[in-house]
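Worked Example 4.2. Read the sequence first, then its structure tokens.
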Amino acid sequence: MRTQLIALGTVALLAQVALLRELSVAFFGSELILILTLGVWLLAVGVGAVSLRPGSRSQPSAAHISRWFAAMAVILPAALVVVRNLRPLLGALPGAYPALAGMLLAVPVILLPVAGPLGRLFRDLAVLHARRGGTLAAAYALESGGSLAGGLLATALLLAGASNLVVLWLAAVTAAACGWWSYGPGVQRRLVGIPVLVLLAAGPWLGGLDARLTAMDHPDLMAVRDTPYGRLTLLHRGGQKVVLVNDALVHEDQGTATEELVHLAALQIARPDSLLVLGGTARGVIAGLLQHEPSLITGVELDRRGFELERRLLGPADTKGLDDPRVGIICDDPRAWLRGHRRRFDLILIHMPQPDSGLSNRYYTREFFALCAAHLSPGGVLAFSLRSAENYWTPLLIRRNASILEALRRSLPEVTILPGTTSVVLASRQRLPGPDELARRFMRRGIQARLMGPAYIHYLYTNDRRREIAGQLAGVHPPANTDLHPICYQYSLALWLSRFHRQLAGARWLGWTPGSRTLAAAVGVLLLAALLMVVVRRRRPVTGGGSLWVVLWAGWYGMLLESVLVLAYQTASGVLYRDLGILLTMFMAGLTAGTWWFDHKWPSLRGNRLLRLVLAGSALPVVLTVVLL
């Protein structure tokens, strides 16, 4: 049973990582769905583990376990097909938001048929392992060890360029092979081996199958690629090319938003010499900046694979200028690159996706703006765009944008915002020029643009919307968006929810500062937990029924701490999509080590003293987390 337990852990972790990544894409890259799906996954495993009570007549056997493994080889590919077609199944148009209730209901509907059988398999294998002289703790340690291997394998496959489909295919092949191997010789073993042969035969066509599955939701698909930072999808229809990152729109080549940002930013500099572009260099930015005759343009791209795919497939209007000798492209995390260099620039252009997720929000925080400000030359300008609304800003949208501007003003006090469907934000330490000077520079440099011109520049600076929005922004004082308090992430989530519940757009429920109330709530929860532990301890010993409370507390505590660390890791590194398997592997490694140690040491211990010590010592990771964050 040891081999089956290890294989089960490998299959479970591979399937978990692949499906969590797929659901993250289905929810437009929101990391919060990872926390929800991870909790649902663990609950489903628990439901599967208790689906058959110990006193039941039906007892596990090798044939029984073999059939379950074979069933997993069919269930896993079916789950991937459902996730890839989730929005069409819910009746949503491509690119549109489906009903929130349907999306949330889909999570347990998809995960229960996958995680439930895995829980049942673990229970049956653990029972058989115990019958053959092992212990339940040892069975858990073996399964956790397999999960450790699965997490490392899932991460290595993505680094090698494999898609999520390949990860799930490998999990299905492992499950089918384990089912075939567990069965005794005979006709039924040959039948169980059929899924193995089918899956192995499908291996050479996985690349085309991945594209076909994606095209079911995106019929105009040009290319799709899983990268360490998410899924990049390119669409082409009627001469228009569109770029999606985690299915969220980041660029379309027939719009003028990029042109507007580039020229308004470059015109702020009297003589632009050295320019820095953070992200999106293959999306029409470089060609526009070259019209202002800089000496050097440095582009920093977060995603090497995504940049190469865009450079190869986007049109010449977007990629023009990338081969110019004045242009240098570096593939690195912009935050890490800025920390490692001391060069100064006349203009820093942030062309990253909108702050709708933890990955993108890390480029709109007070800490990142301070990092950019340190690399600006005297009179240098920082520029970026914010998705807004042209005619009416809801209170929630005002607070979202104000939290970013509040973070920006801590480092660059002179801020100009030009509202529109996509608002342009300009910031510097010195006063920025007015529309007359910008119009003169535009004419003097002979800029060629589809929308931009002297008349349009005057319109942006003098229309009533600008004064109205400035007054609305001055009337609110939300917390500044920071790494440790990403309030913009909260506002963006609420903006998304307001699409389904319009009353949330009023933002009255967000009009308080969360610090003191959150602290009071946390203290109240801790006091309540302490009270429950005291009551349970007095009524029954920890080794009796009270141990259920300890297990419940351990699950709650572990999930809470893991959620905090996962979101913090995304803020710090931005590669949660790639390293999700590693993070879950580290978690499983801790579970494996702890289970193994107690399995070997517990029989020699007496009483509950050590258990109390472990429970008290579990506060140490919380303290370390607070200090490290």
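Now turn to a second chain, presented in exactly the same format:
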Amino acid sequence: MPSGHIDMFCRDSLPPRDQWPELVFDIADVHYPDRLNCVTELLDRVIERYGPDRPCLRTADGGVSTYADVLREVERICYVLCNRYGIVPGNRILLRAPNNPRLVIAWLATLRVGAVAVTTMPMLRRGELSTLAEIARVDLALCDDRFVDDLRAADLGTAPLVTFNQLAATSTDQPSPPFPSADTAADDVALLAFTSGTTGRPKATMHFHRDVLAIADTFGRHIVRIRPDDVVTGTPPLAFTFGLGGLLVFPMRVGASTLLLERVTPDELATAIRTHEVTVCFTAPTAYKAMLAAGDADRLRGLRRCVAAGEHLPRSTWQAFYDATGVRLIDGIGSTEMLHVFISAADDAIRPGATGVPVPGYHATILEAEGHEVPVGTPGRLAVKGPTGCRYLADERQRSYVQNGWNLTGDVYVQDEDGYFTYVARDDDMIVSSGYNIAGPEVEEVLVGHPAVAECAVVAAPDPDRGHIVKAYIVLTDGVTGDDRLIAELQDFVKRSIAPYKHPRAIQFLASLPRTSTGKVQRYLLRDQAASAAQAS
């Protein structure tokens, strides 16, 4: 369909069509008109449906902005973007801020004028920001005034850098609303979301206006089931697509409100949930476990839906949370390439330990190395297709992620005879020791069940006799001291729980695990560390 973009950089940078995944639109929920701007659906349509005074954005200090307030500010910023900075549809705007209303308004204004949002983590540094700006060829950078130093030091090319305070001051001189949404096509690029780049140059994934709505109309509608009267909160940054969907798109799609928290500890999250009467929470499994460990279960009684994603959810964490709160954690697997979650389950359909089944609108299977489906019960490569899919911006790695129409997520899964998918490992987390295939996450799940273990990561360490051995890097719970006696106790604990050959023959205690800006454990750093230690010995 004809693009609404004037700047055609994104459209010209899409992969060739024969490298796209097969896109599937076999449920009515994801049928959209050819002309579509998702901000119209998230703002204007909600106001038409529920009226202007519905709460939209909440802050920790008790501030509340209605949908009408948000629309008014978005339209003022739209005038600034177009009249002051010359933004045209298709330009890329880099955004840098923690989760707060100003970031949300800047994101919505970017898409409303037909530009492309490139939202970045506040913790990224000069070199990382330079790389992202170069890949996206940004035309403008908007930044929270408190996080401007690294962006000023970064190479943004010719893109101007504007702080939120400058933007707000300029907006008061602009004409009054309304500012209609740009006439974008449903398949015009709305955002560039970067992969975490743990092992090399980051990849920019390209997502359309229809994709933004599709994640709300599949996982959001059928699994999370947010209601208009819900108050939603969580910890993932909006630059992380898990956070973008859960904390912004899903609630706005149904007229709910979001409590935006810039950066909180698990204990502070629990307090915010109680204080603001939050009913829906999105965060990582480790945060749910930490809230329980801190004795915060009573503060979570008002929750009715809790989503855990971003990392593997151990069965022990699921059960402990359910026992303490009566809430069934919704597990799920998604990816930046797919934009959000595509396998999950909720309520009575949940089977603890299994991720779930394909979200309505998505299809999944397990493939062997040559691309053929494997028998039920056989581990293999997880392959997915649906209304969203991988489209890297001018990147040869497109050929690896998409094969024969399937998106290959890089995960090893097994599917049972009832169609449930259970996580085994990442492709590169399988450990071959003395001829045995050992899944690192299986060992991790046992170890985190020990009261001394706060969190852990298991990797392969080179060994002259066995090829590789299982090595565990462990963060201990507060007050526990790591010594040889505890190492032996943990090894015996694993041997009693799973096949003895899977136990960690080496254990090292750390103060913290290395993580990406999205919170994922950087196992490749631990593998490098294990290899260096083995070589030194």
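Notes for the reader: The mean pLDDT is 93. The CA atoms of residues 109 and 346 lie 34 Å apart.
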